[in-house]
Design brief:
The protein is mainly alpha-helical. The chain has two domains: about 60 residues; about 50 residues. The protein is built from four helices and no strands. Helix 1 runs antiparallel to helix 4. The longest helix is centred in the last third of the chain and has 51 residues.
Length: about 140
């Protein structure tokens, strides 16, 4: 799939996430918990696919992406631990603090994704430019 097509797919996925968040505001607690669990499982599945793709690409993927993946894995592990701990605490003040922390974590994840989209945009343009340069070099070689 071309990089520009992947960027379109990313945009569609961001819209779906926005729609999920809007719908979640009207869901009952049990339904919302189920929806959140499904979203978490989907995110884990996508992360595993990304790890597999990165391993398959091997040396073609820069070491910095490997570092990003390890950092993201550590973040996800900590988020899971935090969520399990929060579920074990039920008093009102703790619940309010947990809600605030969850909102801050969501905001940080969105900021991270926003930056990732900027980098994806830059990478797509670099890929298109590299293809143009390859095409031009091939044309020049034929002359």
């Amino acid at each position: 799939m071309a990089a520009s097509d992947l960027l379109r797919k990313l945009s569609e996925r961001a819209k779906a996430a926005e729609d999920h968040a809007a719908a979640a505001k009207t869901q009952a607690h049990a339904e919302l918990e189920r929806t959140a669990d499904e979203a978490r499982a989907s995110a884990e599945s996508e992360a595993q696919k990304l790890r597999a793709q990165a391993q398959a690409a091997g040396a073609e993927i820069s070491a910095s992406w490997d570092d990003v993946q390890r950092s993201w894995d550590a973040h996800l592990a900590q988020a899971r631990t935090d969520m399990q701990r929060r579920k074990a605490q039920f008093d009102a003040s703790t619940a309010a603090a947990n809600a605030k922390r969850a909102d801050e974590n969501a905001a940080m994840a969105i900021d991270y994704a926003y930056t990732a989209i900027d980098w994806a945009d830059s990478a797509v343009l670099d890929a298109i430019l590299a293809q143009h340069e390859a095409d031009e070099a091939a044309a020049a070689a034929k002359r």
